[in-house]
Each structure stands twice: as structure tokens, then as C-alpha cells.
């Protein structure tokens, strides 16, 4: 699934045939349950890492079940721009000019600014940071499950 800007959570337990044999029917729902737990943890971290001006972007983060697993992603259309940047800071560097007016209008605090162009802004990397934070936590969860299963 193409998620735009987000994180796919997919658990492949093909190597855990011993669990399947030992737990039978109970094991059937385990991958889905584990994916859901990891997706919820990922969502929580992504909400914390998301830049907050109005809070709209952070509150738009959803867990979407798919055929392959779960996807954690913001649903606001500007999420890509906040992650990767705009203008000179984007993948296709360029200045940003007004399309239907003589000037661009910005509001910073109480001050209104007019400009003939802007350089854009650098991406905030909140999804990348989320991956960096969550990856070791997922490994720790899986290691704990493995130790608990084997009684270590």
C-alpha cells in the first residue's frame, strides 16, 4: 500500500511455526494483535514527534488496517510538506511564487508579512524520527516475547 508519508507495521511470523503448532487456534490472531500493539505505540510516538502549531496534524494521525498489516499515518494533505519540506528545501528545489496574486501573505504571531517569493521551509522529519524511536522498542518487545516463550 502506498501510504504517502507514514509507517507500515507488518508482522511476518512464518518463522514461528513452533508457536503455531503449540498454541493452535489462539496463535491465529497473534500477528494481528501484535501489529495492532506496535501500531498503537507508533501512533503515540508519532503524535509526540509531530510539530504542533495548531495540533491538527498530530490529531489527524490514524491507524489504518490493511491486508498486509497496519499503517500509521497523518491524514492531513500537508503532512508530506511538513515531513520533507517545501520550496528550496524540497526534493525539487525551487522558490515559491504567488500564483494568483502579486504577493504571498504570511502571518507570524500578530505580524502580517507580504513577500514576492519565499524559499519555503525545511522538513521537520517527524515520521523519520518516529521510525528511529520505535524501531529499537519493537526489537525489545519481540525479544521479551521470545524470552517469555522460551522461559529464559
In brief:
This protein has 2 domains: 7-84 and 123-150, no CATH class; 86-120, no CATH class. The chain contains 6 helices and 5 strands; from the N terminus they run E-H-H-H-H-E-E-H-E-E-H.
Structure characteristics:
152 residues, alpha+beta, two-stranded antiparallel ribbon, elongated
Describe the SSE topology.
Blueprint: E1 7-9, H1 17-23, H2 25-28, H3 30-49, H4 56-59, E2 61-65, E3 70-74, H5 79-84, E4 104-108, E5 111-115, H6 126-150
Antiparallel strand pairs: 1-3, 2-3, 4-5
Helix pairs in contact: 3-6
Describe this structure in words.
The mean pLDDT is 86. A three-stranded antiparallel β-sheet has the order 1-3-2. The protein is elongated and about 70 Å long. The protein is of the alpha+beta class and 152 residues long.
Gyration radius from CA atoms, angstroms? 21 Å
Could you spell the SSE succession in H and E letters?
EHHHHEEHEEH
N-C termini distance: 37 Å
Shape: elongated
Count of helical regions: 6
Estimate the strand proportion. 15-25%
The figure for the number of domains is 2
Q: How many beta strands in the DSSP annotation?
A: 5
Fraction of helical residues: 40-55%
Largest sheet: 3 strands, antiparallel
- What structural class do the secondary elements suggest? alpha+beta
> Strands of the largest sheet, in order across it?
1-3-2
Mean pLDDT score: 86
Taking pLDDT < 50 over at least 5 consecutive residues as the criterion, the unreliable ranges are none
